[in-house]
Amino acid sequence: MHAPFIAALGTAWHAITVVRYPHDQQLDYPALEALVRAALPTDVPFVLLGESFSGPIAVSIAANPPANLIGLVLSTTFARAPLPLLSPFAAIGQRMPVSTLPMPLLRWLLFGRWASAALLAQMKSALQQVEPAVLRHRAALTLQVDATSQLSRIAVPVLYLRALHDRLIRAASARQILARVDDARLVELAGPHMLLQACPQTAAAAVLSFAAQLQGSNE
To answer: Which CATH class is domain 3-81+146-218?
Structure first.
């Protein structure tokens, strides 16, 4: 679902890599972080982008970064469980009937008025490629994660992309990150939780502007 966003980024950077998670393995956050670290470039400066579920992974990597990481982008995401009142129910999430979640609810939560037939079809296809047990496991992980202790160790510049019409991640999640990172900036964009998918052009423009500033400061 990232093809339009990648296309909007163009060829300004050496390469763009999407790190895919296994669709059939119930990996925890440390295991997923190890998978991401193994895929990071080693010979060129790069910017790491963590979206939604992947935010805590990106935060953890930036807190203990490879030498060539020069910036971090966090999009519609969190460092600590975004719904803390639901944390005690993480075990229930492991039994959640993912396959029967009504599409109108997902449409409202993830896309709102930005929903289109194409986006909904892509989302349905993406969900069908991941085993239900894996989706349940990841949902449970988000109810328990807490990477806030690592935020103060992030030394690279951070861009947080907040969707003004996000129905999943509250503004408090952005404030929590911005308050704990020395060099962090906020860009708010009209759009839903699935910001990179629904508004690829505006999201890419914000990321490209951030990257250009990083390039200028590293020349």
So the answer is: alpha beta
